[in-house]
């Protein structure tokens, strides 16, 4: 094990290594906001812009006019966030269409910061999405770098954007506390805010969902495993299995390089047991899960995808081989969607590194919102 700081150092070096590899392979990423790897493609392929966040090397494509995508986050169209000082009772007191900080929303031992985005028109009994950022990120960055808030204006759900209290802003996905139902840690602070939203904002308890990228993806697994009573579905973008980052007795946001490098190999039963031990005695339905991972991920190695598959198929009692595994017309080539049952899908993105770009509209379908 080493500290998250050295881990961050390692992560920071990766883009340089990718730059050195001058050309992306077929189906590899070649541009997009936040992308610092190769921007040209191997011969016979061309870099095609799919969205602001993702350009891909596609075979035989005519070279498109070069679209230079800024690698930094575009100037924030975000109004400055407002702190209300305390969690207002009732959604009416929260300003619309503005990222707003709340506090005093219940047990929050690590002082996770919490921000809410309420659209102009809230659906009756709205759904809630908890969207968790990556290491070095913030609630504000995930808010402006994703479409979760923007799409809430169409679909009327409410979004919570938690912000990590730890230096380096990785999430606590390793402590005993965070991996236990109501055991403390970052996960309890986030679960408290979701419970607060149900009790005070009229959020539909049957439609409380979690999504996150990288460290936020790991947090999503933690929330799904330790708070199955609160969360009804989770989408894990480039994360790890529940409990894979466990580092008992170490600081809350410890890095687990064994897990990150895909060297923690357990059986499905052992992985499922970590989930069951998080909340012994829980007999309700487990949140349905969707996991996404890139085969060229060198931060959280792709083996983590297969460990997640073992874990969730065992939790749901599904066979270990998918019912179907196919490409999807709306996804880039090289993406495969393996369905194991109604509650678990695993999407593998060929040639994609850390992290798989977000597909928010599809996530909303999985959540049953869109
Ligand atoms: C789905 O198919 C792809 C490509 O054929 C393969 O790489 C991937 O491992 C399969 N997914 C699962 C979960 O078995
Ligand atoms: C994967 O396939 C299943 C079954 O066809 C479908 O319901 C689901 O929406 C697909 N998932 C994605 C991410 O496209």
UniProtKB/TrEMBL annotation:
Domain CBM1: 22-58
Signal peptide: 1-22
Keywords: Carbohydrate metabolism, Hydrolase, Polysaccharide degradation, Secreted, Serine esterase, Signal
Claim: Plastid is one of the keywords in the record: no
First-listed, main subcellular location of the protein, grouped into a coarse class: secreted
Keyword Nucleotide-binding: no
EC top class, as a word: hydrolase
Compositional bias annotation for Pro residues: 64-78
Record EC number: 3.1.1.-
Record's subcellular location: Secreted
Residues covered by region (Disordered): 64-90
InterPro entries from the UniProt entry: AB_hydrolase_fold (IPR029058), CBD (IPR000254), CBD_sf (IPR035971), Esterase_phb (IPR010126), Plant_Biomass_Hydrol_Est (IPR050955)
Top-level taxon in the UniProt lineage: Eukaryota
This protein's GO CC annotations: extracellular region
Residue stretches of biased makeup (Low complexity): 79-90
The family this protein is said to belong to: Belongs to the carbohydrate esterase 1 (CE1) family.
PANTHER family referenced in this protein's UniProt entry, alphabetically: FERULOYL ESTERASE, UNNAMED PRODUCT-RELATED
Name of the protein: Carboxylic ester hydrolase
Lineage: Eukaryota, Fungi, Dikarya, Basidiomycota, Agaricomycotina
């Amino acid at each position: 094990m080493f500290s998250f700081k050295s881990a961050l150092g390692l992560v920071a070096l990766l883009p340089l290594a990718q730059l050195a590899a001058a050309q992306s392979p077929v189906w590899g990423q070649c541009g997009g906001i936040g992308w610092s790897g190769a921007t040209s493609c191997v011969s016979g392929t061309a870099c095609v812009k799919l969205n602001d966040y993702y350009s891909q090397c596609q075979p035989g494509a005519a070279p498109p006019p070069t679209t230079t995508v800024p690698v930094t986050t575009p100037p924030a169209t975000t109004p400055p966030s407002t702190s209300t000082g305390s969690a207002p009772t009732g959604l009416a007191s929260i300003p619309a269409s503005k990222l707003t900080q709340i506090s005093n929303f219940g047990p929050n031992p690590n002082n996770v910061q919490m921000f809410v985005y309420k659209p102009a028109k809230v659906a009756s009994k709205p759904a809630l999405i908890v969207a968790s950022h990556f290491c070095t990120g913030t609630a504000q960055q995930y808010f402006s770098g994703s479409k979760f808030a923007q799409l809430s204006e169409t679909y009327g759900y409410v979004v919570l954007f938690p912000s990590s209290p730890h230096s380096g802003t990785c999430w606590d996905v390793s402590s005993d506390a965070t991996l236990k139902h109501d055991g403390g840690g970052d996960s309890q602070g986030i679960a408290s805010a979701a419970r607060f939203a149900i009790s005070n904002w009229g959020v539909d308890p049957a439609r409380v969902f979690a999504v996150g990228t990288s460290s936020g993806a790991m947090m999503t697994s933690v929330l799904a495993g330790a708070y199955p009573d609160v969360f009804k579905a989770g989408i894990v973008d480039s994360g790890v299995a529940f409990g894979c980052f466990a580092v008992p007795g170490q600081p809350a946001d410890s890095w687990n390089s064994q897990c990150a490098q895909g060297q923690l190999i357990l059986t499905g039963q052992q992985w499922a047991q970590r989930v069951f031990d998080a909340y012994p005695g829980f007999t309700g339905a487990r949140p349905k899960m969707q996991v996404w991972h890139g085969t060229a991920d060198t931060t959280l190695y792709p083996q983590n995808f297969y460990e997640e598959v073992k874990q969730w198929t065992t939790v749901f009692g599904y066979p270990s081989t998918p019912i179907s595994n196919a490409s999807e017309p709306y996804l880039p080539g090289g993406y495969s969607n393996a369905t194991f049952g109604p509650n678990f899908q695993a999407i593998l993105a060929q040639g994609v590194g850390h992290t798989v770009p977000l597909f928010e509209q599809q996530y909303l379908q999985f959540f049953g919102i869109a």
